Amino acid sequence: MEQHLYFAACDPTGGIYHYTLADGALRFCEKTALDRPMYLAIEGDSLYALMRGPRGGSDMHSALISYPIDAQGALGAPTEPVLTGGECACHLHVKNGTVYAVNYVTGNVIRMPDTLVAHHGHGPHPTRQDGPHTHFVNRTPDGKYLFVVDLGNDTIYTYDFDLNPVAATQVPAGAGCRHLAYSADGTRVFCANELGGSVSVFAYADGRLTLRGTYPALPASFSGTNTTAAIRVHGEYLYVSNRGHDSIVRYRIDDDRLTDPVWTSCGGQSPRDFDIFDDMLFCTNETSSNVTVFRLDAQGCPVQLPIELPMPHPLCVIAR
């Protein structure tokens, strides 16, 4: 079965790179020019993209655009940009045509086009947690609510779909929660902690999270600077990327625990995002400007393939 892969390359000369994947073979299709796309989402026959600063220059107010997708996976003419109500929009979620986005610098979440909620507070890190910094938005595992993750104040918020507050859950102080992934049965939520270089495991029920434990995302021998980034669940395994250590760690999910960590080099520098399609893992290495490709072995460990996709500062990969 053929899949269409789309990569966001966050550079003034970058854009959205479109490849097809069929029987393990990749084929480049087209590049759609776009100034500094930050994150992508697909619903139906539409691709949505967040633009870091659509007005150019020093103006960092972000915007949302969308493209129609034709039968061959090509992108059509984009809509006009709509501002996201803040600076440096970095993550979005789309359901039934309703778009939610988070603005990292200004620490707020928006239901497009005009329902905006600002966060408050800060964490102990003197520079990275000087105020709220929203980094992730998605539906809860049961589809009843929204999660919004705030790196700046170490909080995972639960909202209803009108952005009314339902609950708020803390991660360990200074951990800097970034992105979430869910167990297949929806009873566990895993949080990648960017500043703490760790993963927190939560039990989930009806909008509420209960912390079960926090696990290191780095080997004990590592003493350099690192920021943990993307997180994915694939079968019985959890995967997390590390920027600085430049690795992907694979854990076995054992109910409330993460066991048997194995680290694999990402094949580049600063693995901002990755995702897994069938048994192939695609990793976007922001600093080294390349996408590396892996196949998962029988133990779920990534094995790098001799395939590399060059593109300027890739931040995101999605598939249709």
List keywords for this structure.
59% strand; single chain; four-stranded antiparallel sheet; globular; 320 residues; mainly beta; 0% helix
How does this structure look, described?
The protein is an all-beta fold. The chain is built from no helices and 28 strands. The relative contact order is 0.12. The model has no long low-confidence stretch (mean pLDDT 96).
Main sheet makeup:
4 strands, antiparallel
Strand content: over 45%
Major sheet: arrangement of strands = 3-2-1-28
Helix content: under 10%
Task: Give start-end ranges of low-pLDDT stretches.
Answer: none
Note the topology:
Elements: E1 3-9, E2 15-22, E3 25-33, E4 37-43, E5 46-51, E6 61-68, E7 82-87, E8 89-95, E9 98-103, E10 108-111, E11 115-118, E12 134-139, E13 146-150, E14 155-159, E15 165-170, E16 177-182, E17 188-193, E18 198-205, E19 208-216, E20 227-234, E21 237-243, E22 247-254, E23 257-265, E24 271-277, E25 280-285, E26 290-296, E27 302-310, E28 314-319
Antiparallel strand pairs: 1-2, 1-28, 2-3, 4-5, 5-6, 6-7, 8-9, 9-10, 10-11, 12-13, 13-14, 14-15, 16-17, 17-18, 18-19, 20-21, 21-22, 22-23, 24-25, 25-26, 26-27
